[in-house]
């Protein structure tokens, strides 16, 4: 191995197959000899075991049976599927020269951002979209924070939830706004949610 190896070279593993020497067939002959040695050792052990319990079996039948088992084992091993292929490499998110980001590699964070970004953008033109999509999500977030931190929700204990949320956040979540809040208003609401 040379002095410099990439991380891919170090982490990849390929099983080396025994090379067959065409002139002598040593690899194939060695495999046959190992098979016969294994069969012979199993036959000897079985004969000793059978004699110890007082049974006798024909040597030819015993050898044929053990040889058949070894051959079946080899065939099954040869037909077994190999390891699954490695997953395709992930393409990283990279910054493009014009200052935007290449989001071709979708990740969980980007999907979560899109889960908020798209509905917020849709709600700019129609306030009922904000009321129908964003406000329930914000309410769920508030309830979850209240439940995790204080053991209550807006439904289970409205008076305590109102105290914990504060008047501004409570009114925002309970009464649907007539217009879509500005990004500054939403940032203030999110900051109040984070304080819970």
TrEMBL record:
Keywords attached to this entry: Membrane, Transmembrane, Transmembrane helix
Highest taxon of source: Bacteria
Keyword Membrane: yes
Membrane-crossing residue ranges in chain numbering: 32-53, 59-80
Protein name (database record): DUF4129 domain-containing protein
């Amino acid at each position: 191995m040379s002095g410099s190896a990439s991380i891919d070279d170090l982490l990849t593993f390929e099983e080396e197959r025994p090379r067959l020497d065409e002139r002598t067939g040593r690899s194939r002959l060695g495999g046959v000899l190992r098979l016969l040695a294994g069969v012979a050792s199993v036959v000897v052990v079985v004969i000793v075991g059978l004699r110890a319990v007082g049974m006798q079996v024909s040597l030819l039948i015993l050898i044929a049976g053990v040889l058949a088992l070894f051959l079946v084992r080899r065939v099954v091993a040869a037909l077994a599927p190999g390891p699954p292929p490695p997953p395709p490499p992930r393409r990283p998110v990279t910054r493009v020269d014009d200052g935007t980001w290449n989001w071709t590699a979708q990740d969980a964070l980007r999907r979560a951002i899109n889960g908020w970004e798209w509905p917020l953008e849709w709600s700019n033109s129609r306030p009922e979209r904000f009321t129908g999509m964003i406000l329930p999500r914000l309410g769920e977030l508030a309830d979850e924070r209240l439940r995790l931190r204080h053991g209550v929700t807006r439904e289970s204990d409205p008076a305590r939830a109102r105290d914990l949320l504060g008047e501004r956040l409570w009114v925002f979540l309970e009464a649907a706004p007539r217009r879509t809040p500005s990004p500054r208003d939403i940032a203030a609401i999110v900051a109040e949610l984070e304080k819970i």
